[in-house]
Write a structure and sequence with these properties.
By secondary structure, the protein is mainly alpha-helical. It has one domain: Up-down Bundle (de novo design (two linked rop proteins)). The chain has a two-stranded antiparallel ribbon. Helix 2 packs antiparallel against helix 6 and helix 3 packs antiparallel against helix 4. It is elongated, with a radius of gyration of 23 Å.
């Protein structure tokens, strides 16, 4: 009883406390990614129902979601660089595929007037914002925890009784995040198959050698 306050004052409880905080922040990150994953099937179904002829991007979204949901990192693996990088890459690929899809559907007035699509688009945008906040909070908690493993007096415990405590991994910007997404249009191309190729078009530029969709009736 006499030693308990002394142990607390010397920082023995600091490392596990900060570790728990970082793991809780990681749970929030996973929750937001799961929310996005749950929205994707409804978005894909809505786009398909609108008779969109562009199949490549839809296929990429479906494949990226499958990959993202198959890669899992639990709290015990947060100190594993390879596992964390694999998870971040899979989620980044889904982010890129969704971004390309949302740019592609701008060529379809009927989708822009579809309330269900607009609702899903808004929910996805809100989820992306929540993901950004959750990742920021996680990084802050991890930096605090990692610092405690290297600074006095907690470094003493990190080297002795709590030597099993390892630095956790941080989210970093992916290579894909450094450039704007390119969009492949298969509009009206005979025999176009899912996953097929088409001329790349920079967002905002008009597709070349491809018939434009008819304007929506008023």
């Amino acid at each position: 009883v006499v030693l308990t306050p002394a142990v607390g004052a010397c920082g023995y409880n600091t490392i596990p406390t900060k570790q728990e905080r970082a793991q809780a922040a990681w749970a929030d990150v996973q929750s937001q990614y799961q929310r996005r994953s749950d929205l994707v099937p409804n978005l894909v179904a809505t786009v398909q129902a609108a008779a969109i002829q562009e199949r490549t991007t839809l296929t990429q979204v479906i494949e990226a979601r499958a990959k993202a949901t198959s890669v899992n990192v639990d709290a015990s693996s947060l100190s594993d660089p390879a596992a964390f990088q694999k998870y971040q890459q899979a989620q980044g690929e889904l982010s890129g595929a969704l971004s390309r899809l949302l740019v592609t559907v701008e060529a379809y007035p009927q989708l822009q007037a579809n309330q269900n699509f607009l609702t899903l688009q808004s929910q996805l945008e809100g989820t992306e914002n929540r993901i950004a906040v959750a990742r920021r909070d996680y990084n802050e908690a991890v930096r605090d925890y990692n610092t405690s493993l290297r600074t006095f007096p907690t470094v003493i415990w990190a080297k002795t009784l709590q030597s099993g405590s390892k630095p956790m991994q941080l989210f970093t910007a992916t290579a894909e995040a450094q450039s704007a997404p390119t969009v492949n249009f298969n509009l009206g191309v005979p025999g176009a198959q899912p996953g097929g190729s088409a001329p790349a078009v920079t967002p905002g530029a008009a597709p070349t050698a491809v018939p434009a969709p008819a304007p929506a009736a008023r």
